[in-house]
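re: that chain from earlier
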Amino acid sequence: MDATVGIITRTKDRPVLLKRALESVVNQSYEDWHLVIVNDGGDPVAVDRLVNHYATQLRDRISVIHNPSSLGMEAASNKGIRSIKTRYLAIHDDDDSWAPEFLTITVAEIEPICYKFPQVAGVITLANMIYERIVGNQVTINRTEPYWASEKRGFVMLDEVLGGNQFAPIQFLFRYDAAEAIDFFRADLPVLGDWDFNIRFLSHYDVYIIPQFLAFYHHRITDQSGYGNSIYAGRSQHDLYAKMLKNEWLRKDIHEHRIGVGTLIAMRQVTDDLKKTTEGQSQSIQRSNTIRLKRVGKLAMLWMSSDRKLDILQKFFRVLLSEGMGSALRQIKTWYISRGGR
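^ sequence. v structure.
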């Protein structure tokens, strides 16, 4: 076995970010790890230069794979994973980072959690989302906020992951044998490979949440260059492949006459749409009621300020008794509008 933890970092022509990722790994207080950098079609000279710069800290705990041409993110992950054999795995993307205690705490926590809950095969920590921009070789942080799943506790819910990915790869430490059992990542997916992997992983195992902020999920929302995030720079591609995956899963359920991932996602989508429609109608009713209350209030103020309050009241009841409520309300509306009501 190469080490207790295998760390896979995919990169392509992003030396500024790769430098930060290397520092994130070598600064870990836990030391029994092996890092595999998969240079997926990028300049090998820049990668080797950075690795040589950290040679003292990395020692013999690093392997570098140079792909002559890009295989894609998930195929690159699989190539790195299959080049080592470890107890645990972590995908450390070249643009994300860890707190120095990430590995120490996750490795220490996963064993007793697995002993108590044998179905657990991975843990995630909480994460902060870092919004940043790159100018030249400088990374400037604009703001930091908790990632959207940071209020979760206990087990990651498969039902929630079906609705959308709940955690980033940088938060996740998982068993090598569990990932191997589901055949690692889908090499044909240019995007959403982590969502597909997480759904398949959670279809077989549980993932437990360690309630400590130990991971940093970095975002560059306006960068359309090679330094951009695929989730922003390739949003239309994400939408396209999300639909493709949902169709595949649902088609498989139909052919196999079962209720599976595709059926559950479709049912969840219907429920979410109904909820949005109900909430929209509720908000519309609330807005209408608010407008009515304002009008009633203004009507009352206009009536109170009139010097013919009794005559107006008598006229209302006279029309009400002789012509009905509809005519009486029309009379009030006409009077209300004539005095500037809207």
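Residues 3-244 form a domain with the Spore Coat Polysaccharide Biosynthesis Protein SpsA; Chain A fold (CATH 3.90.550.10).
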